[in-house]
Structure to design on (121 residues):
């Protein structure tokens, strides 16, 4: 039996699972693109670029399941489907933007560490 991972007495398993989902490359790209407003699937795919249709569909469904994204169907012919951030999705933008800013500030330090590491191998 596997023991739960804890931090200060709190089971971190659910947190670990949630962080894995929201911190994935595609989740971050989708959430940041949707921060501009609702978008159609094809527009998201075009803006993100190298994501496959299957991966985009899977990630959108996961974000919808977790309450970050809302799928809105407009009953036209053919039906129009848009994706937009929910209140929870909008709330996620602040920590994602902070992490992005940290990455920009520290990119050169990470690159230096990688180069130093490669010299030792």
């Amino acid at each position: 039996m596997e023991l739960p991972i804890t931090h200060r007495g709190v089971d971190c398993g659910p947190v670990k699972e949630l962080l894995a989902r929201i911190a994935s490359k595609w989740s971050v790209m989708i959430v940041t693109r949707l921060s501009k407003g609702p978008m159609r699937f094809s527009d998201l795919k075009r803006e993100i670029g190298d994501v496959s249709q299957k991966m985009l569909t899977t990630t959108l469904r996961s974000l919808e399941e977790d309450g970050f994204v809302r799928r809105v169907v407009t009953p036209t012919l053919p039906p129009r489907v848009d994706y937009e951030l929910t209140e929870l999705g909008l709330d996620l933008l602040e920590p994602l933007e902070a992490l992005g800013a940290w990455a920009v500030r520290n990119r050169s330090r990470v690159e230096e560490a990688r180069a130093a590491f490669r010299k030792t191998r």
The radius of gyration is 18 Å. The chain has a mean pLDDT of 91. The chain has one domain: 6-119.
